[in-house]
Amino acid sequence: MVNIYDIETVEFPLGTPQLRLSVSHEEYKPGTGLKVPFTLYVERYSLSTILHAKNQGDGEPARYSLFTNKLEVPGTPSGGKVGLSINGDAGNADHRDGRRGGELELFVEDLPLKTASCIFLEASGGAGFQPSAKLEEEGRDGGKGGDGGSVKMIYSPFVSQASAVVEKFLADLYDAQKKWPSGFQEDAAALEKVLADASTGPHVPLPSFMRTKSGILKSKKVVVRDQVKKLSLALSGESHGSIFASLTQAIAVHGGNRGFGSHGSKSDGADGEPGKDGTQVVKSTAILTEIHDTDVCFAHPVQCRMLLDQVGFLYFVGSLKSRAQGVILLERLQQRLEPFLSKPAVEPKLWKAYRRNAKRLCIVENNPVSPSGSKHRRARGVVSNGFVVEQEHAWKETVYSQFMHT
């Protein structure tokens, strides 16, 4: 069963949902703590503090998975960081050893350096039990520190989309064969489209006359070339390397501290062992082979279908504004599903991850859970016996072409 909040948001299963799918343009704002286990596929997620949860058991570790187009950071707290934390519980008198850290999975489709610089992700092990320092004949043993958990971060620098447009524009501006302004219709239109995207435009430093196709083409070529050159330099400052470095430094998966045994009049208690550090993965969607080698299921077939339905609606509304919005959504969806367009000769880790997590993601083929069974079947897309999403050729050849040629 499924909870249907509105036409843009659904949750599975009924009663105790652990999966939320949404294509709403309204940002999702979590409460004061992390609900675990929980998986979210949302287009916008707002984070204004560090949200905490604890891994309290020895079985399946507590997990929080967030997959979003844009991570909103409305304002940083006094410490300057926002983020997610699932540390292991500390040991106690009944259970001396600290618990292992939890599991965090994040996919952020458009991530500026400014946002990456204030993120903190933590899945450290709990501290081992430290007996009280009271005098006893036999000292009590300290507990072992819990092992660190797992943090996996997949990101797409928002500049990767803008940079491609800007670099082509700049190259054309230096091409003596292209006539100004008639030969720059496509370049100006492409830049205008990038700036119309709410996830990209506000971060791009340009004067107002450079934000519309007409404004660009009415300006002098030398002025436009100067602005595009400055923009190219500004975007290169937010390089993949800078974002990668910020994210790598933002992750903590330390092993828990050991507990020291207490002293006794006859013998001292034994000290525990410190926990082992956990694992961290940071990868960019700009490198396709790295994405194939991850086990993070960053695209959900039902949510992708919901986005595609939005595209169809915007197309049939018919206004220029709605069609422009539809093109942006469609290209976002196409970029998100690019890793699934071809099947490598050797089955990648990503394919196996979808099969392994099919039940958790409610995409089991024999028991589809969806507000619309037919929609789910169309969106599911399988590779052999797996449950891997792949882009449908139908919408690529029809809806996309309608948008681009209307």
Task: Please provide a brief summary of the model.
This protein has 406 residues and is of the alpha/beta class.
Overview of this structure, please?
- There is one protein chain.
- With 406 residues, the chain is an alpha/beta fold.
- It has 3 domains: 3-157 and 239-286, no CATH class; 160-237; 301-404, no CATH class.
- It is 32% helix and 18% strand.
- It is built from 13 helices and 14 strands.
- It has helices at 113-116, 159-173, 185-196, 213-218, 221-237, 240-249, 288-292, 301-317, 320-336, 349-356, 373-380, 393-397, 399-404; strands at residues 3-6, 9-12, 19-22, 38-46, 50-55, 63-72, 82-88, 103-108, 119-122, 136-138, 150-155, 251-252, 264-267, 279-284.
- An 8-stranded mixed beta sheet has the order 1-2-3-4-6-8-11-14, sandwiched between helices. Strands 5-7-9-12 form a 4-stranded parallel beta sheet.
- Strand 1 (3-6) and strand 2 form a beta hairpin.
- The longest helix has 17 residues, at 221-237.
- The two termini are 40 Å apart.
- Residues 366-406 have low confidence and may be disordered.
